[in-house]
User: What shape does this take?
Amino acid sequence: MTASAERRRSPSGPRHGATPGRVLAALTCLALLAGTGCASSRGPSLRISDLGWPADAPRVRLERVLEPQGARTGRLFRLLAGQPEAPLLERPYGVAWDGADLLLTDPGAGRVLRISADGRVLASSKAELSSPIGIASCSRGIVVTDSESGEVLLLGEDLRVRERLAEGLLRPTGVACSADEIFVAETGGHRIRVLSESGERFLGTRGSGPGELNFPTSLVLDGDDLWIGDTLNFRVQRIDAATGAPRGAFGQLGDMAGEMPRLKGLAIDPAGQLWVADAHLDAISMFRRDGTYLMSVGSTGAAPGTFSFPAGVAANAGGELAVVDSFNRRIQIFRLVAPGTDHS
Amino acid sequence: MHSTTSRQTVSRAALKVRGPVASGGRPGLAAALLALALLPAPAVDAQSTGGAGSGIAATVHNLSVSGPGEIRSLTETEICKFCHIPHNPVVSDPLWGHTLSQQQYSVPRSPSAGPGVQLGGQPDGSSRLCLSCHDGTVALGDLGGRGATIPMTGFQRLSPGRSGYLGTDLSGSHPISFIVPNGEPANSSDRDMGLRPLAAIHADQDIELDDQGKMQCTTCHDPHADRFYQPGEVPRFWVKPTVSEVCLTCHELR
Assistant: This one.
């Protein structure tokens, strides 16, 4: 979005001078319009859709694309070309900021990576996980969900599994944590499991009503609000993190920008807007918390700024939004730019 | 959705048997009609094969909140929408502008992202719909079969556990989204796929290539009907009773 904040639309409606010719024309138009049942008193005009750029509309720009060397070739090509080693990213999914680093899950390779801001792989786990999906940097350490083994795992700094926090979950995916609780979306159980020192509790049940879930996949905790990517209800829901009481929902099924046919990643940026990654639209969309649709970024493709199955998204305090472009095997990092700082 | 049989039964039941049959007429017909009219109408059965999708309500692809095996009166559209995403031509306008096009970014040229770089083996077509859920979140990703050998009769050169098995971006799975060539290419590599001629593949009623002649997920899996699933033996939504029969439609044993 490069439309500058200075663009203004002219006030709607043409201006008429009151020459006799124009008066006659206007009266003729009026007569015709009255005759055809139109009530307009200004004559025909073009509809102006004022996009309503508020003076403080931010911009989004793509800043960096992180992709391993040779990421663009499939295994078949690499084998035939004599490059048999596995790529650094096989099919990444989840992402979380940890300071200036990115934590990344790669269910295609069964492992977790830590990547620096300039693209160096600082640490990588062994390929010992089945399907690591969600990842979060919590007070106890790095928490990862394994959707195939049904476990919630605590990783050490070396990204090896240090402790199994929970097991037997029904396809755990999205994860978010507060100071003393870990929230896990159980996609196959259509509920949220909350882990803490004092035990477990559950939020939500299967359904399509307020507070009910159908294959939830992503979570964001914001104060005492838990935002849930309620994927097969095609909506984002907000509930009370303590009680599960529904506090609103928005989104709908469809194939147009701003809709949520395959909601995957969810994030909240420093300005408080929600970002939703959709794997069918191959786009990320921005919404206000009240559900007002703001804009979308991207379409299907492999060029920068396009996506192939975008998955996890994560925002940091500095205004960077990391998007895992899973089938393009890369991470695209966008920056939210405040107006008036065009060249920052 | 009613099966054809039930509709006919209903209409037969509506036929009136007019008056006493004349002695010289056709007593058999009236009796037959009456007997047919008294037949119980078959229950509307989600397992019936009347029409596409009629079996889906009982499969795991019934993603509606009531799930498979429960409320049978659920209309088919409530199940269809999860994959057959409805087109909504009228949506609210985005407040902050239209969908961005690539030109709107001034992106410095990246050495690895020049124009015309062709990604190898990107899934396309109907397989994209499958992969939008089968990524480890809504449903199992990598098809859950990483490293497992596909049980086949006879000796096969290629199997997932052996080195030289060629996957694409989908680890451990058969390549997809490629145009199936007609028989073995003349200058093929040393990997002999035993590919049958296209005519033989097309002749099979269960194996379908897409409208561009590509193999997709739907070539081996029918997402609407899970007729032959056996845990550990036959995958879900498989189009034939055994694994081998599907493979052998396109590949000859060597």
Summary: Chain A touches chain B through 82 residues (CB under 8 Å).
